[in-house]
């Protein structure tokens, strides 16, 4: 049973599971855009043939399914991502990461920390415990 279709190299995406859930959804989405060669979620939705280039885990698919409202704002180039607070859950569009450990400015009085969804895959880095950030 030979298949007529040429083989497509399927990519897995490695997202940052330490982000707040909405940030994870945005990270999965940005990596999916990168793997499929699409610049925006709209372009991806309109190109169902590129979906076979990427393989998501059940958890990654769930993240995307549960946060569709943020996906439409994301863009690879020029980059448009989000920062999201780990306490109040509010989010804002962002083009670069906030200072490491930056406190939430999205709602008055929130003590949360802002997290940024990068367009780059999660790197496996060791973080020394107890070292204050610069
Ligand atoms: Zn907050």
Descriptive tags:
three-stranded antiparallel sheet, 25% helix, two-stranded parallel ribbon, alpha+beta
Number of helices: 4
Bound molecule kinds, no repeats: zinc ion
Summarize model confidence as the mean pLDDT. Answer: 89
The counted number of beta strands is 5
Structural class: alpha+beta
Strand content: 5-15%
Strand order of the largest sheet: 4-3-5
List the helices and strands and how they pair.
Layout: E1 11-12, H1 21-36, H2 41-45, E2 54-55, H3 58-66, H4 68-71, E3 81-85, E4 91-94, E5 114-116
Parallel strand pairs: 1-2
Antiparallel strand pairs: 3-4, 3-5
Structure description:
The chain is an alpha+beta fold and 134 residues long. It has one domain. It is 25% helix and 12% strand. It has 4 helices and 5 strands; from the N terminus they run E-H-H-E-H-H-E-E-E. The strands form 2 sheets. Strands 4-3-5 form a 3-stranded antiparallel beta sheet, with helices on one face. Strands 1-2 form a two-stranded parallel ribbon. A hairpin with a 5-residue loop joins strand 3 and strand 4. Helix 1 crosses helix 3. It is elongated and about 55 Å long. Zinc ion binds next to loops.
Briefly summarize what is shown.
With 134 residues, the protein is an alpha+beta fold. It contains four helices and five strands, in the order βααβααβββ. The relative contact order is 0.19.
């Amino acid at each position: 049973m030979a298949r007529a279709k040429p083989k497509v190299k399927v990519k897995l995406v490695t997202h940052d599971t330490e982000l707040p859930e909405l940030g994870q959804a945005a990270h999965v989405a940005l990596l999916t855009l990168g793997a499929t060669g699409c610049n925006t979620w709209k372009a991806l939705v309109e190109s169902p043939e590129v979906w076979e280039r990427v393989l998501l885990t059940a958890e990654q698919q769930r993240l995307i399914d549960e946060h569709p409202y943020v996906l439409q704002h994301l863009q690879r180039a020029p980059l448009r991502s989000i920062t999201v607070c780990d306490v109040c859950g509010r989010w804002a569009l962002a083009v670069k990461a906030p200072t490491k450990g930056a406190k939430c400015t999205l709602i008055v009085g929130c003590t949360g920390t802002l997290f940024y969804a990068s367009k780059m895959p999660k790197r496996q880095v060791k973080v020394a415990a107890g070292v204050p950030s610069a």
